[in-house]
Amino acid sequence: MKLKLNSVHKGVGYTFLVCFVWVLTACTKEAYDPAEIPDIPQAENAVEVEQELMGVVNAHRISLGYSSLQYSPIAHDYANKHNDYMIAQGDLSHDNFSARASGIASEVNAEYVAENVAKDYDTAEEAFQGWLNSSSHKKTMEDEFTHTAVSVKKDANGDFYFTQLFYR
């Protein structure tokens, strides 16, 4: 069956199509591009706290019969950038996680990426206990990952920000 449209119907259809496309593009959230983030000051890493936290997480995993996680410099770079972002925002967040996960996945061919973040703990042990007391964070630490990295940085007020990324 063929339907013949006159010029009025074509005009209405065209107008509808233009409006529909405009609504779709107007409501679409912009994609996150890390290169477009304005220069965020980089805080200095608390390397000893990072190493201690990674050691505590690995000791916990081993105590449960899981394998130790290998350090990933690529994940560390992404964790550092996220800590700098959170410090600049002044708040704890998982903002732009999908971009971090995609970046890590493409650079190391990871099939699964996860992260834990924390703030306002004074030691690696306190941050670890906070994650351990949260079912979702605990699950992440105990999941079947192969690699990890921890970034720990202090803001201008001396408050620690923690980001640990995991992948397999």
TrEMBL record:
CDD domains: CAP_bacterial. Residues 56-166 form the SCP domain. InterPro entries: CAP_dom, CAP_sf. This is CAP domain-containing protein.
